[in-house]
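Lab meeting tomorrow. Look over both lines:
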Amino acid sequence: MGKRFVPQGVMPALVTPFTKDGDILEEGFKQVIDFTIGKGVTGVVPAGTTGEFSYLRTEERKKLLRLAIEFVDGRVPIIAGTGQNSTRATVALTKYAADIGCDAALIISPYYLRPSDKGYFDHYAEVSRKADLPIILYNIPQCTLGILNSNVVEDLADLDNIVGIKDSGGNIGHTVELIQKLKGKMPVLIGHDECFLSAIAAGARAAIMASANIIPHVWLKIMERVKAGDFEEAALLQQKAQTLARIVTRNGGAPPVKAALKMIGIKAGRSRMPLDTGGTLTLELKEEIRLELERLGVIESLEHPLAQPIDIMRILHEMAEDIDRANVDFGVGSNDKITASVATGSKSGPLGKVFVKLLTTPQIGREALTVILEPNLPVKPSSLMIPKSKIESMRQASLFYGPVQAGAARAVADHLEKNLIPRGAVTDNVMLMALDIDMNTRERREIRAAAEDAVRKALSKIWG
């Protein structure tokens, strides 16, 4: 047969939504297909790695392919995942995909008992001869524990109905080697989301990726920019999508993609055991996914009111004990991202007692942290920082006690270097800082600079 199918564009490796009992959630599968086609995909790939094919019985894979035919309804090509451990089983499932109307087959290399290079060649050659369907080879060595070497692929490209190779290894050197050797023979498809731009810029023709369930329009835009020669814009888009791509590729594919789809409003269901376990995605990782979807404009951002002036006395009363305002000097600094209220007073006075109490009896979610410039180097005067709002997750903690703390420390050190803090205050005083920030912020570098700015302004009101 002739090579009638030419892979092109961006195609999602479709997730398979499962119910709580482990059945295929048909409504959810249809929603995923409709969503991705609505975003402009050039084909769909059911029963692949992201579709958890290895957890599906053969009859379930057949059902999934039939559902794909029904739900796609001719709108885009269907590339069926039909690879199995044995050559005979792969031929049988590929023939079935051809019989029901799929446009091509994505065939993973035999895994578990992996063959030699000759075994790989013979496997694909046999499927090519016996299954009346265009075939895309599938190299994913992190799953199969064996690699499709370029010399084997180059020989397979001479067979009539082998029409491409999906390279998901994440080794861009190997991908470029395939592109170089297969030029003019058949296209290379990138299957590793983090390497998308590099592969497309090097000459990859198309992509089949897990994150294309969520943001195929972003990948299509990058492809468009590369074709137009606008590599600067393409690079900016890849960088913008890189965090989400990394989360997807390094956390099992299906679980993070399903979490993202649910945030979009799609019934993406569960994964199957053992992939679906309580520890698969932490709350912090889900929060990161949500923030990345906001950043990419896929879902609306949660609104956070602008930082407001903080009544540090009220906070100190809540967290510690009554304190006489007359014994404490105050300063407030603010910008559009952070408000900092700073109180300073004698170590031996009421503020010193509060300082000790905050260190020795921390409140969950409102822990006071020593402000340090670097490990084992606290700022002078001795300082503590506390969040105005309760910290709800590890991600928020890493933000507040990371870049925010670093910015606050830099502001104190800067004041000290400029001799703006009286010498007596450096040794005899303590400081408490209450900071209000948007815990949903994504730009850690910006929030560090904002914290430094706000704390510097507050200190200037105390010491000029």
Q: What stands out?
A: Residues 9-295 form a domain with the TIM Barrel fold (CATH 3.20.20.70). The longest strand covers residues 338-346.
